[in-house]
Amino acid sequence: MPGKNFYITTPIYYVNDVPHIGHAYTTIAADVMARYKRMCGFDVMFATGTDEHGQKIQQAADRKGMTAQELVDSVVVNFRNLWEVLRITNTDFIRTTEPRHARVVQYIFQRLMDQGDIYKGSYEGWYCVPCETYFPESQVGDGKLCPDCGRPLQNMTEESYFFRMSRYEKPLLDHYEKNRDAILPHSRYNEVLSFIKGGLRDQSISRTSVTWGIPLPGDERHVIYVWFDALINYLTVCGYPEKEDLVGKFWPTVNHIMAKDIIRFHCIVWPAMLLALGLNPPATVFSHGWWTVEGDKMSKSRGNVVDPFEMTDLYGVDAFRYFLMREIPFGLDGDFSERALVGRVNSDLANDQGNLLNRTLQMIENFTGGAVPSGQGTPGELDGMIRDMTLATLGSYRAKMDVYAFDEALKDVWTLIKRANKYIDETMPWKLGKEGNLERLGPVLFTLCEVLRFTAAMTSPFMPGTARKIFDQTGIPGDPAELLLDELEWGGATAERRVSKKDVLFPRIDLKVWEKQKAERDAGKTAGPDPGDHEPEVTIEDFRKIELRVAQVLKVEPVPKSDKLYRIDLDLGYERRTIVSGIREFRSPEELEGRKIIVICNLKPASLRGVVSNGMLLAAETADGKSLALLTVDSDIALGSRVH
Ligand SMILES: [Zn+2]
């Protein structure tokens, strides 16, 4: 079919992240759309991948004693494996460290340089090293803290190449005036436009302070700034610039899916770069919301990061995919709760969908010996109503899928599933069967099988495994994912077929058992250490410089005007001394007095709230800061003994 092409992308993910629900969400949404478009007859290109350059990668590699390339090669599998588990049907997986990508980035740089869209200048600003971002004066406040991560910023000046983005302010505004659907949901359209109207500044696109990146052609002291490099991945996948036919076929159809925090790059910087290259800006940039977890912001330090591998192990891939797409409107923020997931498994999947299949199969086995009736017989008035509703649902489902309203599309399908369950109660096929009324029984069971066939097709982009099982158990050969929705017709499955009842699709989850298991799982999980916490390597000589000794706590008193501090008097055997420690919220004076603890004795003295501290006690603390354990000795030993 000419012209039916569709290119969809996820962002490329920062390769050193541990994949979490946010990554899974974006990628599942893109996969649902890709699968749906294939069922609409589109030739689909679907790309995801990893962002592998930048200072943070180099730093992480240094800490682990690896090269940056070794590090990225070792962690990229986390994403590849997850996409396999989640049944993601991407047609490409791009890594920014691939030679095919470096070539395109260097080509684009050179071309923009040659046409005067890139120039050399110097950049001064407030720079956050972990975020690899400069922030304008207006965003950093008096404390000069990073607006993204809250860490202190450094004032830096460096030579840099700039992309002349200011030149594209007017062309971008013109583009968005004419293409109001280019930014979805529409609520973000005005946000982006007012930002552009506020004036676009030229963008720094190279760094001399970073080594792990794509070298800048002609000036190898610079590497290309990670964002400039990363955005270009979407063109690399298309085979730009050599494969003109592929670029021509797919580029005008590109849909970028992402979380809302990176829309300015995708709605301003990237389209400006594309305009400079004489290419269309993205057809659609769809930005979705963020997930909280059980009402809290998700973070490593809270220990509440949702692990998609764990969720699919516990509940199955299809239930996890269904929940994420059904629970919140695509585009809005939402809350992830396992209890809500279990609720949907039990009601939507086990009760509504699973029951419709089981009841239908059971009656066909009982009354027609397993053969699906042809539909010949005496039609009832409800049969036609169910048929019309099914066809209408297919129409509304497609209209909603076309605009990424995944939750609405699923709601429509479930309205139909529930109506079909009610139709069973109304027509009472078990009664027709016992009465031997095959004239009525045939059309009723046939109607139910058709509803199952249509709903399996419509849920296939969301729950590919389940949809296939429904086809299999109702005797339809093949995979619903390979159907064309245009060819889905009522009564279209005419071949003689037999049902084969197998395992239920979704066994009901017993809430009591689940609560018990969940409590056990939670107890086994404590907030994990933040991998960003690691320190650079030290030698044994470095370690020996720290004088650790066994001391006994003599007396503990609160430090006045402080909620957290204790003044602690210690006996080191050879001398007595005082330290100040912030452990008041964890231990009472009685719990401490008399204990033998480990103290750093040669720490530079510091005055805390007017009390001079001559040393520091050692304790282990969880990443969330909620619990603490003191280091002590496992048998009696002379005070002042050194710790090695
Ligand atoms: Zn930062």
Task: Describe the protein.
The protein is of the alpha/beta class. It folds into three domains: 284 residues, HUPs (Rossmann fold); 201 residues, Isoleucyl-tRNA Synthetase, Domain 1, CATH 1.10.730.10; 106 residues, OB fold (Dihydrolipoamide Acetyltransferase, E2P) (Beta Barrel). 43% of the residues lie in helices and 18% in strands. α2 packs across α3, α12 crosses α13 and α15 packs antiparallel against α16. The chain binds zinc ion. The site of zinc ion has 7 residues, from loops. The site of zinc ion (ZN) has 7 residues, from loops.
Distinct small molecules bound, one entry per kind: zinc ion
CATH architecture term of the largest domain: 3-Layer(aba) Sandwich
- Quickly give the structural class: alpha/beta
* Average pLDDT number: 92
DSSP summary, beta strand count: 25
Major sheet details: 6 strands, parallel
Number of structurally distinct domains? 3
Rough outline: flat
CATH T-level topology of the largest domain: Rossmann fold
CATH class of the largest domain: Alpha Beta
Corresponding CATH superfamily of the largest domain: HUPs
The gyration radius over C-alpha positions equals 31 Å
Strand content: 15-25%
Q: What share of the residues lie within helices?
A: 40-55%
Termini distance?
A: 74 Å
- Biggest β-sheet: strands ordered side by side in the sheet: 3-2-1-11-12-7
Number of helices: 22
Low-confidence stretches: none
